[in-house]
């Protein structure tokens, strides 16, 4: 799955001096749907990033909206530790008053609630909605764009019209392939 993770970086323009290095974890939960999964994710990301500062890296960026390992790494390292969940939710509040999260399936809602509670931001989340399609961690959305993208759009539109969201957040970094298409719509 490392290739899928690396592919995300092609959609952003970085300073030519910035180099991204990807590290895999030794173990990871399959689905991130239980407290056991959350602990395993925290431990595996802590282990993967613990030597980053000693290895000469300027920062660690976690690649999961769950922000697994962020708190533990921040307590152990002095370099910046960036979690996409926190970054996304805080950026959403710079763009609007309330945001909604669209996800592949409802089983991920616990992850969002955990992060939103830690940030004391539950009242800023207008809603969480899912299209209820089991995520494909190998192929992500590839080959399913015609089926999934319209479902995500319809769900996002409900978040805006029915729930009062000003901003839509994607519930997983594995959904990055839908970002540009949804933004255009």
Structure keywords:
single chain; 185 residues; alpha/beta; 3-stranded parallel beta sheet; two-stranded parallel sheet; 7 helices; 39% helix
Low-pLDDT sequence parts: none
Number of strands: 5
Give the strand order, joined by hyphens, for the main sheet: 4-3-5
H/E series, N to C? HHEHEHEHEHEH
Into which percent range does the helicity of residues fall?
A: 25-40%
- Describe the main β-sheet briefly: 3 strands, parallel
Compact description:
By secondary structure, this protein is α/β, with parallel strands linked by helices.
Report on the structure:
The structure is a single chain. This protein has 185 residues and is of the alpha/beta class. The chain is 39% helix and 10% strand. The protein is built from 7 helices and 5 strands. The chain has helices at 2-7, 35-49, 70-76, 84-95, 109-118, 145-161, 179-184, and strands spanning 60-61, 81-82, 99-103, 125-130, 167-170. The strands form 2 sheets. A 3-stranded parallel sheet has the order 4-3-5, with helices on both faces. The chain has a two-stranded parallel ribbon with strand order 1-2. β3, α5 (109-118) and β4 (125-130) form a beta-alpha-beta unit. The longest helix is centred in the last third of the chain and has 17 residues, at 145-161. The mean pLDDT is 90.
């Amino acid at each position: 799955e490392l290739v899928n993770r690396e592919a995300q970086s092609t959609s952003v323009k970085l300073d030519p001096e910035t180099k991204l290095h990807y590290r895999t974890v030794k173990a990871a939960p399959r689905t991130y749907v239980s407290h056991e999964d959350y602990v395993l994710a925290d431990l595996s990301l802590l282990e993967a990033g613990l030597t980053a500062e000693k290895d000469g890296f300027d920062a660690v960026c976690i690649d999961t909206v769950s922000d697994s390992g962020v708190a533990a790494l921040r307590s152990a390292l002095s370099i910046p530790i960036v979690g996409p969940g926190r970054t996304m939710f805080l950026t959403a509040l710079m763009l609007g008053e309330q945001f909604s999260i669209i996800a592949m399936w409802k089983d991920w809602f616990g992850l969002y609630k955990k992060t939103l509670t830690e940030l004391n931001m539950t009242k800023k989340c207008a809603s969480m909605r899912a299209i209820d399609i089991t995520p494909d961690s190998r192929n992500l959305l590839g080959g399913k764009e015609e089926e999934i993208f319209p479902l995500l759009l319809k769900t996002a539109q409900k978040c805006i019209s029915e729930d009062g969201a000003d901003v839509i957040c994607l519930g997983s970094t594995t959904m990055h392939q839908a970002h540009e298409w949804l933004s255009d719509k």
